[in-house]
Every structure is written in structure tokens, then in C-alpha cells.
């Protein structure tokens, strides 16, 4: 049955006793009272939240309980989720890497690319070797050949290292030895002489030591230059496999900081003990080659630490932790600055924290592929300057990261010739440093995604100065 348009349904049946109306009045009054109380409570919470400089929930009380070992177990369990699902970069990718290198050499008219043991060598060959005074060199020539030049007495070890590198047989380098009383550089000349090319240009990997670059220059008849930016940039473009490793490495680093922040720090703790706990957390999540900078209060104004006088944590402290490690040869690097008790930190410092956070957010929101590295820096820098802290942001905004902790591209306002490409990974780490008073830095790693915008390689930016980044 349907009701006609004009028919009304009474809100209440007419046969109601006055008793009911009284009850209803009481109820309404009760509701009004509750409403007023609710508004008041909301105002109190709102004002408290504003006090803390963040319009969210007020911070949880600082956890001074010793649940450190339990928290470490939970962290390790959580990290297994991503670490166990990863594999090293597969062997076929080394074929792709070398093919891209050879293609680029041909396009650029480069006859030979010479490298010492380095992240670049690791990238193309999965070979590790320690640099010593005896040159160990790898030469790629534009006829798509790879030659290992080794001290003769180390030839057996060089072969073993090559077997350990375990690359597909499609990559089949020749090995040339130079004897102890001979010259490695004459050997380079002979190797080059055995390959034909139209081009005369030789490029040297940028981290090559001077005596080696100069030794080659004086031995060969070719022109010798440092690798072009195009050649250097080849390994800045990360593949999905590399990004999966880097994402996991940086996520577990940020989570490890959160665990130290909420379960590892006590009032009265020294910077050194915070560093020890941070190291323990990084090892528990499965990172190697770990490093930590933990700074309290005024010491945080030294961007790279090494302050004169150690500071211990007080209830009104701010703590800066900059840390990272290695996972399958790839690096992580994350910084968080947080307050022990936000209520005890003054407005100036809270405003500075918010400014640094906003600078990170501005970069995430606005930067896209094709932007210059200078523009990336300036996007954060202008925001910090507009907030009145321009002079206190004393370093570049960030650095590339991958097999090396610091590598190209550098986000520096002077770096106007570098332009973002999909696959570039770099840190976004604005800071505000007031010597003798405080320092704040927040750092997350980002990647330029295939659509050209930025994706975080951590779980998320720090939420506020007392919540850890993730979860
Ligand atoms: C690269 O070398 C390491 C040993 O240094 C080895 O564990 C790894 O499996 C190698 N990578 C590939 C793709 O075989
Ligand atoms: C807040 O902290 C800053 C930085 O240490 C300091 O310069 C300023 O005097 C402080 N303000 C108050 C009201 O304590």
C-alpha cells in the first residue's frame, strides 16, 4: 500500500499521555546537557591539540617502560614480511645493464669505459674487490666486450670472485694479467689496442683514483675524460626489482626508528645508548653495514653530529635520529626528529618542526619528472625561507641513493643541469638548525614513478613530532 502525497504520517501517535511528554522533555534536556558537555570537551581537546601544533589527537604519554626486548621481537617479526619476500637482483638484469651501457657508449661515441672496484663496477658485474695500490680494472669496449685487468699474482682470486658473482654465461669477460714488475697502464693500452673502434674517446668512472686516471692518460693514445652525465645516470634509473629492495630497506629503517622512539628511549639516556639501541634494532630487521647518528637537543644543530659535549635525554628533549643500513647491497637512509613530551617543547621549536614537515610535503605534492634538481631543492627551501628560517636550512635538500648512500643526482639549488627521470631515487631531507639551541631534520627516500610524480619509499612521512612514521 502506498500513501498519497498529501497524507501525512503523524510523528507521534495522538493518544499520548502528558507523562510521556514530560519524559521526553527530560530526555531532551539530558541530550542538551550532553551536547553542551560534548562541545566543551571538543573545545578542550581542540585547544590542547593546537597547543601541540597538530590538529589531531593529543600525544600518548611517553613510554618509559622497559618493554624494549618485546618491542624488538615485534619489530623483527614485522620486518620479515618484506625481507622474506625479496630476492637479490636477478642475473638477467646484469645483461640488461651491460646492454644499456654498450648502447649508450655507441650513441655517445665512447670507445671504452674504464672502472675501478666501485658501486658502478658492482652494478654492471656483481664483482667485489678491494681497492689497493695495485690497479684492478674492468674495461668495457664498444664492441660489447668486458675485460678484467688483474695483478697476475691475484689472477686465481679474481677468477674465484668472478665465479662468485654468478652471472649468466652470456656475460663472458676475458681476463688479462699484469705482472708485478710490469705496468697496469701499459696493459690497458694493449687491451685497447686489441679492440677496433671508430671512436678514440675513453671515459673513466668518476670515482677512479687520480693516479689511475693519470696513469691511463699518459699510457694510451686516446683522449681520456671522466664519464659523461648520461653514462653516469644509467644506474640512477632503478628497476622494479631494485625499488622493491630499496622500499623494504627504507620501510624497516623507519619502523626501527619508531620502535626505538617508543620503546627504547628513557629519560636520562645518553646519545650513545640511543645509538646502540638503534643499531640493535637495525640488525634485528636484517640490515647490515648499519650506521646511526643520534643527537639530543642543541647537539641536533650539528647536521652530521660529532658535537663536543654529549647530551642526555630530559623530559623536554627533542631527539634526532639519522640512520640506515644495507639490504642486498642497496642502502637505506631515514631521519626522524621527535619530542619526548610535546607539552614541554616550546612553540618556536614546534613551529620549526611543522615547517620542515611542510617542506617535505611540498616536494611530494609538487615535484614531477622533468623538473630540475635545483627546482626540487628550491621547492623546499622557498617554503622554509617564507616561514622565516631560510638561513637555518644550511645544506642541500637531498642526494641520490641506491648501491651508494650518497650518489647522483644531488638535489642542490646549483644543480640546474640535472632533470628528474622516472626511476630516480633520492632523499628529501630539509632541516632547520639553530646552533646552541636545537636542530630538526626529517628525511624520507622517494622515487620518481612511471607517471612522473613522487612515491615515498618509506611507509609515510612522520605524522607529527611524537608519532612514529609508520602504521
Ligand atoms: C652477486 O654476488 C653475490 C655474492 O657477492 C651473490 O650472493 C649473488 O647471488 C650474486 N648475484 C647473482 C645475480 O647471482
Ligand atoms: C623557545 O626555544 C627557542 C629555541 O631554543 C628559544 O630561542 C626561545 O627563546 C624559546 N622561547 C621561549 C618562550 O622559551
Automatic annotation (TrEMBL):
InterPro entries named among the record's database cross-references: Creatin/AminoP/Spt16_N (IPR029149), Creatinase/aminopeptidase-like (IPR036005), Creatinase_N (IPR000587), Pept_M24 (IPR000994), Peptidase_M24B (IPR050659)
Domain called Peptidase M24: residue spans: 245-450
Keyword Transmembrane helix recorded: yes
A Pfam family per the record: Peptidase_M24
Transmembrane parts of this sequence: 29-52
UniProt KW keywords: Membrane, Transmembrane, Transmembrane helix
SUPFAM superfamilies: Creatinase/aminopeptidase (SSF55920), Creatinase/prolidase N-terminal domain (SSF53092)
Domain Creatinase N-terminal: 97-237
Protein's UniProt name: Peptidase M24 domain-containing protein
Amino acid at each position: 500500500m502506498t500513501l498519497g502525497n498529501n497524507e501525512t504520517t503523524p510523528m507521534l501517535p495522538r493518544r499520548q499521555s502528558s507523562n510521556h511528554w514530560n519524559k521526553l522533555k527530560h530526555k531532551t534536556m539530558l541530550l542538551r546537557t550532553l551536547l553542551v558537555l560534548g562541545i566543551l570537551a571538543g573545545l578542550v581537546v581542540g585547544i590542547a591539540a593546537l597547543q601541540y601544533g597538530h590538529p589531531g589527537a593529543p600525544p600518548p604519554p611517553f613510554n618509559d617502560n622497559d618493554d624494549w626486548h618485546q618491542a624488538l621481537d615485534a619489530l623483527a617479526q614485522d620486518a620479515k614480511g618484506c625481507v622474506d619476500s625479496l630476492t637479490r637482483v636477478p642475473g638477467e638484469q646484469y645483461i640488461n645493464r651491460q646492454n644499456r651501457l654498450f648502447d649508450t657508449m655507441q650513441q655517445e661515441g665512447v670507445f671504452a669505459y674504464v672502472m675501478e672496484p666501485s658501486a658502478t663496477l658492482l652494478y654492471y658485474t656483481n664483482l667485489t674487490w678491494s681497492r689497493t695500490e695495485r690497479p684492478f680494472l674492468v674495461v668495457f669496449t664498444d664492441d660489447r666486450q668486458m675485460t678484467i685487468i688483474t695483478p697476475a699474482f691475484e689472477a686465481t682470486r679474481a677468477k674465484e670472485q668472478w665465479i662468485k658473482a654468478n652471472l649468466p654465461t652470456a656475460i663472458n669477460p676475458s681476463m688479462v694479467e699484469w705482472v708485478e714488475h710490469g705496468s697496469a697502464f701499459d696493459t690497458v693500452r694493449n687491451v685497447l689496442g686489441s679492440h677496433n673502434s671508430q671512436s678514440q674517446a675513453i671515459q673513466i668512472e668518476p670515482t677512479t683514483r687520480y693516479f689511475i686516471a693519470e696513469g691511463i692518460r699518459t699510457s694510451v693514445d686516446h683522449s681520456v675524460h671522466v664519464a659523461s652525465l648520461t653514462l653516469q645516470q644509467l644506474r640512477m634509473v632503478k628497476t622494479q626489482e631494485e625499488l622493491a629492495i630499496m622500499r623494504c630497506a627504507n620501510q624497516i629503517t623507519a619502523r626501527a626508528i619508531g620502535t626505538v622512539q617508543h620503546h627504547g628511549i628513557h629519560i636520562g639516556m645518553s646519545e650513545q645508548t640511543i645509538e646502540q639501541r638503534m643499531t640493535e634494532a637495525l640488525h634485528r630487521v636484517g640490515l647490515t653495514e648499519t650506521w646511526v647518528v643520534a643527537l639530543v637537543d642543541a647537539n641536533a644543530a650539528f647536521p652530521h653530529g660529532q658535537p663536543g659535549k654529549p647530551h642526555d635525554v630530559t623530559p623536554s628533549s627533542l631527539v634526532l635520529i639519522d640512520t640506515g643500513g644495507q639490504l642486498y647491497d642497496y642502502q637505506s637512509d631515514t631521519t626522524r626528529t621527535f619530542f619526548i613530551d610535546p607539552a614541554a617543547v616550546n612553540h618556536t621549536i614546534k613551529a620549526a618542526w611543522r615547517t620542515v614537515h611542510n617542506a617535505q610535503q611540498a616536494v611530494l605534492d609538487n615535484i614531477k619528472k622533468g623538473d630540475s634538481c635545483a627546482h626540487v631543492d628550491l621547492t623546499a627551501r622557498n617554503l622554509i625561507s617564507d616561514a622565516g628560517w631560510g638561513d637555518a636550512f644550511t645544506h642541500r635538500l637531498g642526494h641520490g641513493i641506491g648501491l651508494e648512500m650518497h650518489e647522483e643526482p644531488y638535489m642542490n639549488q646549483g644543480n640546474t643541469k640535472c632533470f628528474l627521470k622516472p626511476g630516480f631515487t633520492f632523499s628529501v631531507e630539509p632541516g632547520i638548525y639553530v646552533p646552541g639551541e636545537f636542530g630538526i631534520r626529517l628525511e624520507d627516500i622517494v622515487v620518481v614513478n612511471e607517471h612522473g610524480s613522487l612515491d615515498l619509499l618509506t611507509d609515510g612521512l612522520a605524522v607529527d613530532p611524537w608519532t612514529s612514521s609508520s602504521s
